[in-house]
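Let's practice the habit of predicting before peeking. Look at the sequence and jot down your guess about where helices and strands might fall. Then scroll down.
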Amino acid sequence: MPIPWAVAAKAIPWADVIAAAPGIVRGARELLRRTRREADEAPATGSDTPEQRLAALETRVESLSAELAASTDLVSQLAEHNERLVVAVERLHRQLSIAQVLAGVALLGAIAALLLP
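Done guessing? Here is the structure:
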C-alpha cells in the first residue's frame, strides 16, 4: 500500500533535519572547494628533484587524508539522517497498519449495528 506522503512528511523530525543541514552543506562545500583547488594545482614537472617530488607527494597524501576524513564525516552525518528518516517511515507504517485495523473493526461494528435491529 502506498504511503500517504503528507502524513509521512509530518512524522519526519524536521527540526533535527533543519538544524543539521547547515553543517552538512558547509562540509560539502568545503570538500568541493578543496577538491577543485587540488585539481587546479599544477602537476609536478619532470625537472623537479626527487626530494621535491617526494615532498609534493607527501603533501598530496596529507591533503587526501584530510579530504577522506571530511568525506567520512559527511557520509556519517548523512547516514544518521537517513537512519532517522527510515525510523520515522517505519513508525508511520506501523501507525497506518493500526489505523487500518481500527477502521476495519469500526466498519464491521457499523455494519453489525445496521443489520441487527
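How did you do? The first helix runs from residue 5 to 11.
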